Amino acid sequence: MARRSLLGSRIRERRGLLGLRQAELARAAGVSASYLNLIEHNRRRVSEDLLDRIAHALGTETAALSEGGEARVIDGLRLAAAGGAARETELDRLEEFAGRFPGWAGLLAAQARQVQGLERAVETLTDRLAHDPYLSTALHEVLSAITSIRTTAEILAETDDIDPAWRARFHGNLRSDSERLAHAAEALVDYLDNVPEERMGLASPQEEVENWLEGRGYHFPLLEGSEEPARLLTEARDLAGASASARLLAERHLERYREDARLMPEQPFRALWAEAPDPTRLAARFGVPTTAVLRRAGALLEKVGFVLCDASGTLSFRRPLPDFPLPRFGAGCPLWPIYRALSRPGEPISARVEMAGRSPRIFRVWAAAERRWPDGFAAGEVVEAAMLLLPDEGSGPPLPVGTGCRVCPRAFCIARREPSILTQLT
Predict the structure, then answer these.
(1) Would you give the DSSP letter of residue 399?
(2) Alpha-carbon distance 313 to 292, whole Å?
(3) Which of residues 146 and 332 earns the better pLDDT score?
(4) Phi and psi (nearest 5°) for 361?
(5) Strands 399-401 and 349-355, bridge-based pairing
(6) What was the pLDDT predicted at 77?
(7) How far is Cα 404 from Cα 289, in angstroms, rounded to an integer?
């Protein structure tokens, strides 16, 4: 049965846009006009068969009526509400707004993400200015020269009986410090004028790489053969404008991809996964860690989500799903199985989770963490966790999760670290 509370409203809106009378739609769908009237006012549930007939009569997809606003648009509207905390917003009517005015909803959601991106750009540029080693040195040189000139000038201005030899020495210092200041300021201006455009971009290197991988479908057939990552990068025109940091991250990703492809060839991997989609089983067959299998599945399979995080919990790679949005900035939901796996390296986790929202979705999640000592015990261990997500149609109680605490609509959560702007939603 279609369970969406605003299903009837969407049918009515669609019918109105097409200029159909209620009786005409009822006749095409094979129901009475009075029954359709009750449906359009959300007073009757609709069977899947009837919903298919209505959608066909309205010339639209069944999902467009049953699901209403896309999860990404709803998530964007919540983001917009979070940014406008000074104004009260009707959060309980987000889906109605998205369903009735999809164009405006999409525009507002896109603008909210653009604002978030611009705010992130300011943070990124501020961080670069604060941690750029050359810029820090250049500014220190300028300030040092200014301080020296000021000190010498104060001595000359406030002291009347200065020995001529000392006066000449101070004048010499003023000249040399002035020249030093001029050279430092000129070098600083030249540096700022010639900062590569890549360093002033709005996207972080990680975002550049993720956008590039998304455009490639996360799959590199050439690396399944004998192609070398360095050569692929050299010939990648769609990565030509990327920053040096992004290219370094891309090279590391491709090197790991190539190694995974060598250990788990594509065709055997796909065949084993189709036979039984169990990462631990494939890990045993190929003799690799479970995290490697999750990475390989995240690259080869379609309609999957994939996440990597380091020991700090920071997401180092994202492959989102439409109905499982991943935070671009900040931490994810503390109830995600990937964080549980992070505390138990070598112990794979399988779980069913339900993403919070007006359109809850169930996903099968596999997560695992791995300890490595790439430079020996003296250098310390490196821990990395991976999580693979697939839409799930199975049974069993799911674990309720969200995107992040700030925009999570769950009224009660044992792991919440900060209040949600959506606390009135259930």
Answers:
(1) E
(2) 18
(3) 146
(4) -130, 145
(5) parallel
(6) 81
(7) 29
Q: In a 10 Å sphere around its CB, with 0-12 CB exposed, 13-18 middle and 19+ buried, how is residue 190 labelled?
A: exposed
Mean pLDDT across the chain:
82
State the fold for domain 291-425. Answer: Beta-Lactamase (3.30.450)
pLDDT tens string 225-244: 878 888 888 777 777 777 78
Average pLDDT for 296-325: 89
Least confident of 270-279, 373-382, 414-423: 414-423
**Two tokens, residue 177:** 């410090």
Report the Cα 46 to chain-centroid distance in Å: 36
Query: What is the residue-wise DSSP string for 17-59?
Result: HHT--HHHHHHHHTS-HHHHHHHHTT-S-B-HHHHHHHHHHHT
Chain-centroid distance, C-alpha 134:
31
Distance CA 113, CA 287 (A): 42
Of 176, 177, 156, give the one whose Cα is nearest residue 166. 156
- SS3 call for 108: helix
Can you give the length of the chain in residues? 426
| CATH fold group of domain 6-123 | 434 Repressor (Amino-terminal Domain) (1.10.260)
Q: Which two tokens stand for residue 48?
A: 């899947």
Helix (H, G, I), strand (E, B) or coil at 382: strand
* Whole-angstrom distance, CA of residue 308 vs CA of residue 251: 17
Q: Is pLDDT of 89 > 50?
A: yes
Which residues lie below 8 Å from residue 92, measured CB to CB, with a gap of 6+?
A: 424, 425
SS3 assignment, position 149: helix
> How far apart, in whole angstroms, are the C-alpha atoms of residue 257 and residue 269?
14
Residue 260 has pLDDT above 90, yes or no: yes
Give the mean pLDDT of 353-363: 79
